[in-house]
Amino acid sequence: MDSKHQVADPITDEWLGQHFDHTASELGLTLSGSLRRMRSLCPVAHSDRHGGFWVLTKYDDVARAAQDWGTFSSADGVGLPRPIGQPKTIPVEVDPPLQRTYRRLINRYLAPAAVNPWEPRTRALASRLVDEFADAGECEFMEAFGRPFPSIAFFEYTLNAPGEDVEKVASWSFTASNPSEPEAGACFMNLSNWINDFVEYRRGRPAMDDIVDGILNADIDGRPISHEEVVGIILVLILGGLETTTGALGSMMVRFSEQPEVPALLRANPERIPDAVEELLRLDGPFVCITRTTTCDVEVGGRQIKKGEKVLLYWASADRDDDQYADSDSFDLERGSGRHLAFGVGPHRCVGSSLARMQLRVALEEILRRIDDIRLRQGASIEYHSAFVRSPVSVPLTFSASR
Amino acid sequence: MRAAVDSTRCEGHGRCSSICPEVFLVDEEGFASAPDREVPVDLEDKVRAAQANCPERAISLA
Q1: Stated pTM of the model
Q2: pLDDT tens, A193-210?
Q3: Nearest CA among A38, A30, A71, A74 for reference residue A57
């Protein structure tokens, strides 16, 4: 996916090794190539930006740090910089053992057995959205499908929230997830206010025995859940449930347009779509990195990291580490293991991964069944919204309706 | 073949029970276990796939 959009690379070795900034817009188009250079030049890098922080890019280092929550803590925030005004996200910014109490509370509503019954409605939604553009021969994919599909689905049958609010909440979530956006803090405020209203709305309605009721009525280690905890958990569901799946869908379409053999293979062998979802997530996972803070001095890859330092774990880099995946930049359906880090690993690994997998599989099944010859519109160039969540801003496509 | 889930490593991702629900059971909150009995021969491939897909490497086979 990188070759066609390669611009003159302004990123120097010195920048990667000493001044790296994950929020830099230059990384939008050069992310995978830049991370490849870091893995060989400086696999454990220190940057002087954002008050100083470390960057881990090798699979083993990233996985180890993510699983060793006692050394690499989430309690001091997982964004860098952390937007002013952002409420505490729960359980994302909480360490075990309390984290596990929250996790058990929401996990049951997002486990495979809970999300599988949503498949028929998910498929009906995907089909309805594809209906709107399949015969037109062109669309702006993010607007037509990438943004509405996960957000409408999430509002309708996970949150049971008022459908008329979908667009504004999705838009705040989009902006809030990028720490270099000046409006990020204000969007967190809007999201908190919306959640306050939503909680009131749900309290005034009959119980639905869904994830929201589960949160509102939760017992946290022997006491009722607090309002701040309710807001923090619902905020995580929104931030995690909308923009991430949107980014994955957008990147999948970009790759399909550049490697038409991939959609051709899947159209001929739709039973391989679940494996393709895993491989596409490994290559172009939307959640590209996360921050931890060390609780003690620790050595990683021969470098000494002091207690209290920020460490960026690059999932997107780990998943293209040649020491883990042979010929890691290529799409290969025969890799056979879904142990990629697109959903993270360890106690904080994505709680919605089963829902995301189902949504992505259904979306690809419906899209590939209905449209063919997927191409980027001539002259179109893709820009990425890219810091922690990587998502194409717009994906103008042309295609033909399948016969 | 026998399969075991290390409950201290399982984080409730649900990969094993999606791939081989015949062997891997999940509790109400989504965390996995495997009853201590012989895996039927025709399920061995699925159990190996479940082990290979566990993000936490919590599944052992003996």
Answers
A1: 0.94
A2: 999 999 999 999 999 999
A3: A38
